[in-house]
Amino acid sequence: MSELTQRERLQIPRQEMPTQDSVVRRGNFDEVALGFTEELARKEAQRCLQCARPQCVEGCPVGVLIPEFIRALREGDMVGAVKAMKVKNGLPAICGRVCPQEVQCEVTCVLAKKGQPVAIGRLERFVGDYELAQRTCPLECCAETGKRVAIVGSGPAGLTCAVDVGRQGHKVTIFESLHSPGGVLVYGIPEFRLPKSVVHGEIDYAAECLGIGIRTDHVIGRIFTLDELLEEYDAVFLGTGAGLPSFLRIPGINYNGVMSANEFLTRVNLMKGYRFPEYDTPVKVGKKVAVIGAGNVAMDSARCSMRLQKLQAGDDDDGSEAHIVYRRSRKEVPARAEEFHHAEEEGVIFDFLTNPVEILGDDKGCIRGMRCIRMELGELDKSGRRRPIPIEGSEFEMEVDTVVMALGTSPNPLVFVDAEGLKRSKWGTVVADEDTGRTTMPRVWAGGDVVTGAATVVSAMGAGKRSAADIDRFLEGEIDPW
Amino acid sequence: MYEILQKEILSDVNKLMVVAAPAVARKARAGQFVIVRIDEHGERIPLTIADYDREEGTITIIFQEVGKTTMHLGTLDPGDELATFVGPLGHPTEIEDYGVVVCVGGGVGIAPLYPIARALKQAGNTVISIIGARTKDLLFWEDKMRAVSDEMIVCTDDGSYGRKALVTEPLKELLEQRDGEISRVWAIGPAIMMKFTSLTTKPYAVPTIVSLNTIMIDGTGMCGGCRVLLEEGAQFVCVDGPEFDGHKVDWDNLLARQAFYTEEERLAVEAWQHKCRLEGVLEEGGA
Question: Is the model's pTM score more than 0.80?
Fold first, then answer.
């Protein structure tokens, strides 16, 4: 294909990614977004204007070489595209699926001004999936340095840090508390959004190439303390995430049928509860599910509920409903745009400006309903959003039998047992330098949700990356910050 | 993978296994628990540590076959491996010299009680133990418990062995007879037994420690499925416990929560038994 003119490029519309039909997908856990075909990917890639000063890269927390990989892709040079991608991002098949591109690389794309940014995320996924299948350019590492690094937690921050530290020739061991590596990528994000085969594929591929050891079933703080790790390893990175669930402080949270989103999603995703009794862990939803909150975790919970209800009902329409109950309005929904859109498309019912005040139980200790109050929006609060205020006298009862609380999470303190030199904030997060990840404890770095509180996969990856660079400088003797 | 090194059949439904887990054994202390998952299809269940051997690098677990997972576990033999064996989890028992203490164990709860009684004895306490079960066949470790106790009372619900009584009866007598002398009670067993033990000691204001075994997944504070209502609010059994002040536990809520998956458990057991029968038929057919 001859080079297009800029004008011609501007005339190509943004390519839609094929998805599973919204009615069909309600009844299965298969991936919703099917990915670009090669033809669609090449066409979308033609839209990129190859800016001299690309703004998209500025918007990416890990600084992926976006114009470079897109250029290679549209020239049909897939190996070149993979190479360009892997300079900054070792886990593209994951990022392409779960990054909120609309507030990162795509929002800063020059074409975004016309509402049609290049679909960078979809192209990234295309390149990532190609590489998972073809394995054209394995990650390579420098000569062995003999230094040993322990990574605590195998979620996005830990994995990214492990890959980058491993590439520098240091020997990496990852400690994971659950039985499967991936952290929130495997226990939290559902199969239909991020297939576990993709996560395991990326992790296995990287671990094999770089000789990274992964020790599952290791709860740091219990089986080894941080101090013990420091005796064995030259550096330690904490990427333990924000795993502790929050519950609303209202009466009735211990009735049967009230769950944290963590519990619900872990049953469904990590334990494969949707395939009970083929898998041993049950997961139970009623006919009226209310998910409290409107972030990505809430969307995932509501969409999982809907699928479980459909599986229970079979071909009948048994009138099951999955609701999202959110105290603010549609405009403030914090979830990734695509997830919100998919949830609506699938029939999740949104109850905006509604806040639960009490969960009601029956004489068997099960939920029979939820008392809620209507809200209105007032002045801007510290987060820059309009503050929700209860409307007096507007209380009403909602008929529900399952309540899933998706209200955000905080760091799990278990890992900090006996780690007295490690400074933490009043929110329980680890105090670490934003640029380097250094904590107050010598030879300990931290990054991702354990430092920031619950955030996104890619911001955790960015933090893992920055820490890896600093760890390498330290191990090479270039710096001695403590 | 974690190899099963030894298996002992304590009764029809109670089995003991010694599992190789050196790193867990190195840190294990009385009162803590492990999370076990049999294979890739398995669920994660908490089992209290019945004993540990730091030198051999082993953990002893004892379980009663009550559901699909424990039934399946009971069919495994030395040489077989467990996919997951995480621990030691939860807080260890606070062992001090309290003076005179009573250790009450019901059924399979005798297993986790043993290392606690032993540690209490080593710390200088006078240990009075009461162990009980529905019937004689369900009792085990009487000799081990006796070896770490200054006094020992054995009872069965049906009178088939020892005294015919619930464990709360001799406990109440002790509290009456030795008024003011008993400084602490530990009770481990089925929730209903711990509830009534706590109710028995409450009028005497003797601090009573119970070890709760609730439904959990990760065992590290992540899912919150194990939460229990105390006077001061909800707490997580996995990270705040597993031991709690029995006088503060909302027992009715705990019992209701434990019954939440009864129907699913029944289905899983049915499917398991069906599979076992089929395999039995196939083996016979092949022989």
Answer: yes
